[in-house]
Specification:
Order of helices and strands: HHHHEEEEEHEEEEEHHEEEEEHEEEEE
Number of helices: 8
Shape: globular
Structural class: alpha+beta
Radius of gyration: 21 Å
Distance between the termini: 34 Å
Helix content: 10-25%
Strand content: 25-35%
Strand order of the largest sheet: 1-2-3-15-14-16-12-13
Length: 339
């Protein structure tokens, strides 16, 4: 009886602390809507929530017998190193992330291609992350995806949108808005819950979409290829800068399967073994894998999947190219807590 009374008192105290912190620290609506400042600062309430969860991890585990909550800061700090003992040739698993990779030979109407997949489930939205070449935003910075993956301790990584090949697009990474110049492309938005949505960039700017919806990442390439579980196939008006959308090319895509559950895919191309696919064919592939929503990323020689710091796909045109950015998934378990 005495133990229950102590637990209840602690719970009430923690709730009071969180409520007072939220009132004192929550930014005003005007500050939340300032488009030219870091979106991370606009989402201070989320930071407070994450901080309280982190503070209470030990209490949760030891007093209330609840599972420990692991989170990562929404910035460009390096993620925890994955535990080498948790890797197999095609899988990784710990308390915060599960990755299963595989390759398939897929028969299409007039060809057979090689597709590389990874099914990824994470415990917290902060484990879906992005990284820049050189560690920061810059128009001249480029390096290999495998080097960016290793530098950020990625469990698995893919190329993103090669943002510094152009001056347009909405570029939000790790909660910070770097660019908002529309040029008519479908844009992938990832919010603070890790959920995907897609909108044309000019519409998102005009409606203030990314300011109102706590968007932590945006990718400006396109097009959308799956929506509401159905393949989106077009003959024209691709709303993207896709690499020859009607031609056979290497491709990269990311899709959402469910809550904090994702599928990434690269298609090998430009070889006798696997010629590549069109974006419409990629749409069919991602829809067949039960994606709710899926998006086409940069392709061609940029198409790269890195697992356990090694290339998992066959990169076209002689090997890895240097690029500006990656999208990756990380473990949130600190090395001090490896089993």
């Amino acid at each position: 009886m005495k133990n229950n009374t102590i637990k209840n008192a602690l719970l009430i105290l923690l709730l009071c602390i969180f409520s007072i912190s939220a009132v004192i620290l929550l930014p005003s609506a005007d500050k939340m809507m300032n488009a030219d400042e870091s979106l991370a600062s606009k989402n201070l309430s989320e930071d407070i929530k994450t901080s309280v969860l982190s503070i209470n991890d030990k209490v949760n585990a030891e007093v209330f017998n609840l599972p420990k909550v692991y989170t990562l800061p929404m910035d460009f700090s390096t993620a925890p190193k994955p535990n080498p003992a948790n890797y197999t040739e095609d899988t990784y698993q710990d308390d915060t992330i599960s990755v299963k990779c595989w390759r398939e030979r897929i028969n299409l109407s007039n060809k057979t291609i090689t597709a590389n997949f990874a099914d990824v489930t994470i415990a917290h939205p902060t484990q879906l992350r992005t990284a820049f070449a050189g560690g920061s935003y810059g128009t001249a910075k480029r390096t290999h995806a495998s080097k960016m993956a290793a530098a950020n301790n990625a469990v698995i990584a893919i190329n993103a949108d090669f943002y510094n090949c152009r001056t347009e697009g909405i570029i939000i990474r790790q909660g910070t808005l770097y660019r908002k110049k529309a040029f008519g492309v479908d844009t992938l938005f990832i919010d603070s819950n890790g959920d995907f949505s897609i909108m044309r960039d000019f519409e998102a700017i005009n409606t203030g979409y990314f300011k109102k919806n706590k968007i932590y990442q945006s990718i400006a390439f396109g097009p959308v290829i799956v929506m509401d579980g159905k393949a989106i196939k077009k003959k024209e008006g691709f709303n993207s800068i896709a690499c020859g959308p009607r031609a056979n090319n290497p491709r990269t895509s990311i899709g959402q399967l469910g809550k904090l559950h994702y599928l990434i895919c690269t298609i090998d191309g430009r070889s006798d073994v696997s010629i590549g696919v069109t974006t419409n064919e990629l749409a069919d592939i991602m829809a067949d894998k039960k994606c709710i929503i899926a998006y086409n990323l940069d392709g061609g020689q940029s198409s790269t999947m890195v697992f356990n710091n090694k290339l998992y796909n066959v990169v076209s045109d002689g090997g890895e190219r240097t690029m500006s950015d990656i999208l990756y998934f990380a473990s949130a378990v600190p090395e001090s807590e490896w089993n």
